[in-house]
Design goal:
The protein has 268 residues and is an alpha/beta fold. It has a single domain (6-267), classed as Rossmann fold. 44% of the residues lie in helices and 17% in strands. The chain has helices spanning 19-32, 48-57, 62-65, 81-98, 112-118, 132-135, 153-167, 188-205, 218-221, 243-259, 262-267, and strands at 6-10, 37-41, 71-74, 101-105, 123-129, 139-142, 147-151, 175-181, 208-210. The strands form 2 sheets. A 7-stranded parallel sheet has the order 3-2-4-1-5-8-9, with helices on both faces. Helix 1 (19-32) packs parallel to helix 2 (48-57) and helix 4 (81-98) runs parallel beside helix 5. The longest helix has 18 residues, at 81-98. Bound molecules: adenosine-5'-triphosphate (ATP) and magnesium ion. Magnesium ion is lined by residues 19-20, 43, 46, 48, 105. Magnesium ion (MG) binds at residues 19-20, 43, 46, 48, 105.
């Protein structure tokens, strides 16, 4: 399937790792670069991303502040699996023809729509809570030696999607990016253990580790307003930028830079 858009899938089979949070911030950031963005919520039963877009669209000051919104499609699963899969494929095709980027938010579970969604990824972003428990979704770690014994389900699923792409006649290369989310400033031992294991695993199963996001209230507090901290530069009354917000913005910028997606804006 040839398309204009670069597809970014935000995925991790584990729940609550920050997929929707990363999706929202990524979308607003890409819109801020002047790119036209389509977004798809495959996790439309929970619908976090869809609610966020809705909250943003409902703002009365949207036009006045020049806040941009993505062309959003929610795809709640129905009882008809084949129809769901056709709808997702068609949505990627349609949005892919008219936008620069598509961001796909996926559920925190193994689901057929999520698997199909992953197969469209040019870039896959996997947020991981900063704990050894969450690492388990990528690999089994031997607790005695703290070494990786084998890749686990999710890594294998990502591998499998390459075959699906090959069958569709698409290139199999996916830029797989793993980032650690909710980084705590304390807990240096856990941090070091995670760093080492992630490095090993990155080499073994072929992803890159990029700078992560700290645990910060600002990443969740603007949800109901339909905003992210990236919008605060517009000077929205009651939402002034604090010092800790500046650090968060810096963190986000590093993440976006590391994805390399800014080149899409330059290519225009
Ligand atoms: N860096 C962060 N700092 C503070 N809170 C965060 C951060 N990242 C995520 N959260 C909060 O953690 C919770 C889970 O995040 P989110 O909904 O983005 O995860 P998810 O992976 O999409 O979950 P699910 O698998 O259920 O879809 C939310 O309440 C979110 O606001
Ligand atoms: Mg979510």
């Amino acid at each position: 399937m040839s398309r204009k858009a670069h597809v970014v899938v935000v995925g991790n089979e584990k729940g609550g790792t920050g997929k929707s949070t990363v999706s929202m911030h990524l979308i607003v950031s890409l819109l801020g670069m002047g790119l036209s963005v389509g977004s798809i919520d495959i996790d439309a039963r929970q619908a976090t991303l869809s609610r966020y877009v809705q909250n943003r669209k409902s703002r009365k000051d949207l036009a006045e502040l020049g806040l941009r919104v993505p062309d959003h499609v929610a795809l709640p699963p129905t009882a008809d699996r084949e129809a769901d899969e056709r709808r997702l494929t068609e949505t990627v095709r349609l949005l892919g023809n008219i936008h620069d980027v598509i961001v796909v938010d996926t559920p925190g579970s193994d689901h057929y729509l999520s698997r199909l969604g992953h197969s469209f990824a040019d870039t896959l972003i996997t947020p991981l809570n900063d704990s050894l428990v969450d690492l388990d979704v990528l690999a089994r770690v031997d607790p005695e030696t703290m070494r990786i014994s084998r890749p686990s389900h999710y890594s294998e699923m990502v591998w499998e999607t390459k075959k699906t792409r090959a069958v569709r006649g698409e290139k199999a290369v996916v830029d797989w990016i793993v980032l650690r989310n909710r980084l705590a400033h304390l807990d240096a031992r856990n941090k070091q253990a995670m760093e080492k294991l992630l490095e090993d695993l990155a080499r073994r199963i072929g992803f890159r580790v990029v700078p992560g996001l700290g645990e910060r209230v600002i990443y969740r507090s603007l949800f109901l307003e339909g905003l992210t901290l990236l919008d605060l530069k517009h000077g929205i009354k009651g939402f002034e930028l604090s010092m800790s917000n500046v650090a968060a913005r810096q963190e986000l910028r590093q993440l976006i830079d590391a994805t390399g997606l800014a080149r899409l804006a330059k290519a225009d």
